Inverse folding.
């Protein structure tokens, strides 16, 4: 048995692949649910109804999907240029804390129409700054950015922990390490009343479309794709490799930072060290499930959020740990990798 | 200055160095073995987490400590099998596959752990490995209590480092592994099957990672809690680069690193006015500095991260 | 009659729809040297890979000393005494010579490598055949010729009695090649049997006892070297008589590009050492040399991807600074890189994207950062039509094109714009004879139209046929130019070996 590269990649395979991958991942985690002694189909039904069964749960799922779309986009744009930014988690936190700091210390008194865009920008810039360190190390010392951006996640989280334990600590939080809340008028408007769903979702979907068009239609999109597919070929064709990677990195880091900013401004209003239940890492899965397509990221983020939100309800009812959602999401990354492989290769005996 | 000197002169510091270094030694050696055969194993963080969990769980359910360690190694090997299936047979991106393995292994660990221990709160404990005083050596002043009164897995880690150095550089098997990491086509042309070598190295390396994780629950602490691995796996990956892919230097690197870590832990208690988070950051910053310093100088295995397919160049 | 050491019986091998080997049978006697002659794609390498067990044949079998060899097992082939010297060496540059040779020769699970015995054996073999090498040298520190020696020693160390060499002279200078063939003859005299693969008529005639000609996957002829001629072999190999176009005399125009004492460093190492050349319009200047002698630095310097450490570059008599790719392209300099797949195209991108990528920022193909896809498609369509690119439309993935068609695409995107200067590095490397002729015709046509062409090549025939003047590149230095009229293979061979000072002395003496 050996694998043979497909000459042509049929379009239907690209659509079927993620669907099959998700089904396979669900089947595999079904085994784990069964081992734990719970009825599998019932568990999945509870996940689905838990995520979409009511108006409230549906808005909750979309609220959860919002930061995932942004971190998913962050990973997708970077991976497409073969820039392995695994630091979205850290960039998320830095974006979040930057917003808290800017609102509390500098900008808080500005009127909302000025303040909100400004804070979003501050969050994005904070994310960019953090990714520039691994990028600089790669360009200057040829250090693999995977490990450095991973390590930066830990540094960023400790940095945030230091700030919310120190200069940004909320004196009214009964000693809990928690940042001061941002001004009320800095909060993003709600999309639907009596829910947590906020305009962040619109921003995320708009950005997905913008990024998609940018990759398809702009010189930068073409060049960053070339840089990812074949760096030496791109250089020979005049693509400024360093500059292009820099722009890609800023876009990626910016999106992740923005995710943090939006989570603070849309949902929490303040920063703690458990603001993100792994949004940065889940973003990698989202990006891969979408096969790095920005529009696919929106759908993949909703699937991932469904698992997370639905698992909460299912867990309460059946006593299955909520971590089953993380397991399913991680499994779907692995199954998606395998599915993608078979869109490129076929088995020959 | 006297504070620094006091810390340096304390037996506790030097005893802690070996204790902190042990999981890093296991993990670094494991990652090094994989990379010598040409496979980057970013599954390490998750595999260590799973090793920590399953080792603890086995002992908690009545297995003896050595069995717990063995089970952690076997579990690591199974994840190694998964990683090699993805990266060797299918030739997928080693970066993404490794991250996938990490995400899966760690979430799976938490799932199993929560299944057994449903409520948060103080996790149940076990009786961990006890220090063994090496007869004769442990009675030496200062050095004895610092270096020769460790738990058994620590001695094992050092032994494995020496063994791995011997195997890689003095045996036909080691040569085959190194050749596979440098040029799998050349290995194949000489009748060595690079696929098998990669499978073997990744499985064995991952078993070591599992043991490194188990050391945390079976010796360093006495219970498991989520996120306890705390990026140690990533630090090991950095240490492999720092060591230039040599087991001896990996041992040295892990000890050096552990020394800084033990030192900052003690410094925290005496230095006032500096947030403790600053100290906790130092291991990660040090890893990045080590990477930057060594990345250009190190002799990377030439076929690292390159999938091998028969007949395809 | 004695049993031949090797018999290949009716071997066929199919890849998809392509029949790479069609019922081929060859025998090899003890002490004999057989040449396997054929163009690229004739099936030579496939046949040898089947013999060595890298591929499973679809039909046929292989006998060694009358015993059938199990299929698809390199290890069995090694054990039976077959040794293979690959064109792209199968060596690890970070390991020592001894380690490279020893890999896989011992039982994998033994407690200790027999290093000292191995060293002794290696030295004995290298003594016996005159293949001198230091066992403890790191392979990456050796020259290409020495690395090939290691590759041969590796096979001999495995007690090979049958040695297969795949295009052994591709990477060697003429002098190194002569030395190699002397060694091969010595091996045959000592009882080894050898097959070497080649497409060079001269060396086949000089070194082989017997010549087997392959064409299109079939064995078309078998001749004793003493009973054939180069002309006959050439015809057998090509099938039809393809005449490569040859340059006609012409008068070159203005000075287009001049380099004066240019030095280029990469990572602190001097890759070009104070080189000088002058290139005029309507002229082809050939730069001949074995690859790896600074050609890459020269191409990149003139392509705008590398800057110089010192020296002057003059473009139409004007001194220029370090130019980027965009500047070079807009100055009307066309560029054909050495390696099509590495640098020439981005295989996973569409043909039209590859056609426009190097001039994407020009107003013809983008405005305010937005790509004009329509203009790109039109441009690609024109290239495809004018340069006869077959195998895909403007939107197809470029990877699907054959080497020849890929090269036509690269030629097309450069020549379509009527460049004033063309930097062509190994433009016909790895192409079949028909495609070579097409590429050469295009270059000559551009020359007629007044383009100044710098032809960087390692193919003597190509340079002799096309170039007006020739300079050799060796170790980053350029020889003084010689006129094509006085350049013959022997003289160029000497130049490529870096012995141009000798020639100069002779010239001056005359």
């Amino acid at each position: 048995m050996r694998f043979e590269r497909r000459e042509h990649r049929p379009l239907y395979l690209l659509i079927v692949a993620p669907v099959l991958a998700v089904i396979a991942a669900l089947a595999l985690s079904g085994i784990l649910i069964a081992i734990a002694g719970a009825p599998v189909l019932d568990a999945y039904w509870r996940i689905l109804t838990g995520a979409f069964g009511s108006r409230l749960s549906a808005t909750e799922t979309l609220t959860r999907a919002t930061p995932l779309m942004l971190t998913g986009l962050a990973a997708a744009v970077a991976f497409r240029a073969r820039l392995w930014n695994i630091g979205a988690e850290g960039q998320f936190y830095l974006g979040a804390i930057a917003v808290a700091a800017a609102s509390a210390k500098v900008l808080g008194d500005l009127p909302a129409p000025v303040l909100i865009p400004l804070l979003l920008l501050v969050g994005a810039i904070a994310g960019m700054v953090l990714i520039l360190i691994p990028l600089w190390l790669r360009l200057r010392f040829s250090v693999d950015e995977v490990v450095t951006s991973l390590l930066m996640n830990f540094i960023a989280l400790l940095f945030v922990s230091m700030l919310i334990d120190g200069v940004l600590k909320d004196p009214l939080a009964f000693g809990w390490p928690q940042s001061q809340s941002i001004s009320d008028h800095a909060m993003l408007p709600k999309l639907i009343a009596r829910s947590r769903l906020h305009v962040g979702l619109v921003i995320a979907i708009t950005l997905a479309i913008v990024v998609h068009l940018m990759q398809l239609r702009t010189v930068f999109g073409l060049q960053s794709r070339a840089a990812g597919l074949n760096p030496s070929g791109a250089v020979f064709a005049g693509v400024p490799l360093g500059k292009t990677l820099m722009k890609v990195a800023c876009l990626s880091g910016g999106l992740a930072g923005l995710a943090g900013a939006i989570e603070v401004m849309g949902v929490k209003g303040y920063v703690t060290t458990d603001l993100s239940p792994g949004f940065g890492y889940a973003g990698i899965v989202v990006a891969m499930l979408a096969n790095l397509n920005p529009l696919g990221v929106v759908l993949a983020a909703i699937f991932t959020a469904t698992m997370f939100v639905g698992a909460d309800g299912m867990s309460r009812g059946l006593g299955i740990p909520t971590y089953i959602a993380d397991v399913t999401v991680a499994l779907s990354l692995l199954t998606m990798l395998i599915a993608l492989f078979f869109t490129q290769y076929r088995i020959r005996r | 200055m006297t504070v620094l000197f006091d810390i340096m002169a304390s037996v506790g510091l030097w005893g802690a160095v070996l204790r902190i270094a042990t999981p890093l030694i296991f993990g670094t050696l494991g990652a090094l073995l994989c990379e010598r055969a040409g496979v980057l194993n970013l599954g390490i963080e998750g595999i260590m987490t799973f090793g920590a969990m399953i080792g603890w769980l086995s002992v908690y359910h009545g297995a003896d400590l050595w069995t717990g360690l063995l089970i952690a190694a076997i579990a690591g090997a199974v994840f190694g099998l998964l990683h090699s299936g993805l990266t060797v047979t299918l030739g997928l991106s080693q970066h993404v596959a490794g991250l996938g393995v990490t995400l899966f292994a760690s979430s799976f660990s938490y799932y199993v752990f929560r299944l057994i221990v449903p409520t948060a709160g103080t996790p149940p404990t076990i009786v961990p490995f006890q220090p063994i005083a090496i007869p004769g050596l442990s009675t030496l002043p200062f050095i004895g209590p610092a270096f020769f009164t460790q738990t058994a897995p620590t001695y094992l880690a050092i032994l494995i480092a020496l063994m791995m150095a011997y195997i890689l550089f003095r045996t036909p098997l080691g040569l085959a592994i190194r050749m596979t990491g440098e040029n799998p086509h050349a290995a194949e042309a000489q009748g060595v099957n690079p696929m098998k070598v990669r499978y073997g190295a990744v499985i064995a390396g991952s078993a070591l990672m599992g043991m490194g994780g188990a050391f945390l629950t079976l010796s360093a602490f006495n219970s498991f809690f989520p996120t306890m691995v705390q990026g140690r796996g990533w630090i090991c990956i950095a240490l492999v680069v720092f060591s230039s892919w040599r087991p001896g230097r990996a041992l040295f690197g892990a000890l050096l690193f552990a020394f800084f870590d033990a030192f900052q832990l003690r410094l925290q208690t005496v230095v006032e006015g500096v947030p403790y988070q600053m100290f906790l950051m130092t291991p990660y910053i040090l890893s990045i500095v080590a990477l930057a310093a060594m990345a250009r100088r190190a002799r990377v295995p030439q076929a690292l991260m390159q999938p091998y397919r028969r007949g395809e160049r | 009659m004695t049993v031949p050491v090797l018999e290949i019986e009716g071997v066929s091998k199919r890849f998809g729809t392509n029949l790479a080997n069609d019922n081929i049978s060859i025998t090899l006697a003890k002490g004999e040297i057989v040449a396997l002659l054929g163009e690229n794609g004739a099936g030579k390498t496939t046949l040898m890979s089947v013999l060595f067990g890298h591929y499973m044949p679809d039909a046929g079998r292989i006998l060694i000393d009358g015993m059938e060899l199990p299929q698809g097992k390199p290890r069995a082939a090694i054990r039976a005494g077959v040794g293979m010297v690959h064109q792209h060496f199968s060596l690890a540059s970070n390991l020592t010579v001894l380690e490279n040779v020893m890999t896989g020769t011992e039982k994998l699970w033994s407690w200790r490598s027999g290093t000292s015995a191995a060293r002794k054996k290696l030295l004995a073999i290298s003594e016996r055949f005159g293949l001198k090498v230091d066992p403890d040298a790191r392979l990456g520190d050796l020259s290409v010729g020495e690395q090939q020696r290691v590759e041969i020693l590796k096979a001999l160390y495995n007690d090979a009695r049958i040695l297969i060499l795949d295009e052994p002279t591709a990477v060697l200078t003429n002098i190194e090649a002569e030395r190699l063939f002397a060694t091969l003859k010595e091996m045959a005299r000592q009882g080894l049997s050898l097959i070497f693969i080649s497409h060079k008529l001269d060396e086949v005639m000089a070194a082989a006892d017997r010549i087997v000609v392959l064409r299109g996957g079939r064995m078309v002829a078998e001749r004793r070297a003493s009973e054939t001629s180069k002309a006959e072999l050439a015809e057998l190999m090509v099938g039809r008589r393809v005449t490569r176009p040859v340059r006609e005399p012409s008068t070159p125009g203005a000075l287009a590009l001049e380099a004066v004492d240019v030095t280029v460093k990469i990572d602190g190492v001097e890759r070009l050492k104070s080189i000088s050349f002058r290139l005029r319009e309507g002229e082809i200047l050939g730069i001949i040399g074995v690859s790896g002698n600074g050609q890459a630095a020269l191409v990149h310097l003139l392509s705008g991807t590398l800057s110089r450490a010192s020296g002057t570059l003059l473009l139409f008599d004007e001194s220029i600074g370090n130019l980027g790719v965009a500047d070079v392209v807009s100055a009307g300099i066309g560029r054909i890189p050495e390696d099509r797949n590495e640098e020439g195209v981005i295989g996973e991108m569409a043909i039209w994207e590859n056609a426009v990528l190097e001039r994407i920022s020009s107003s013809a193909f983008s405005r305010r950062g937005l790509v004009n896809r329509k203009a790109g498609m039109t441009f690609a369509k024109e290239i495809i039509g004018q340069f006869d690119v077959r195998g895909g439309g403007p939107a197809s993935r470029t990877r699907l094109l054959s080497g020849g068609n890929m090269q036509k695409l690269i030629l097309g995107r450069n020549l379509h714009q009527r460049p004033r200067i063309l930097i062509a590095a190994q433009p016909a490397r790895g192409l079949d004879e028909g495609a070579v002729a097409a590429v050469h015709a295009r270059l000559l046509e551009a020359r007629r139209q007044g383009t100044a062409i710098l032809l960087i090549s390692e193919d003597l025939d190509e340079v002799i046929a096309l170039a007006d003047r020739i300079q050799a590149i060796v170790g980053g230095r350029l020889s003084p130019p010689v006129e094509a009229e006085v350049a013959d293979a022997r003289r160029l061979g000497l130049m490529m070996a870096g012995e141009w000072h000798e020639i100069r002395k002779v010239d001056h003496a005359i």
Observations:
- The mean pLDDT of chain B is 92.
- The longest strand of chain B covers residues 132-133.
- The CA atoms of residues 24 and 249 of chain B lie 13 Å apart.
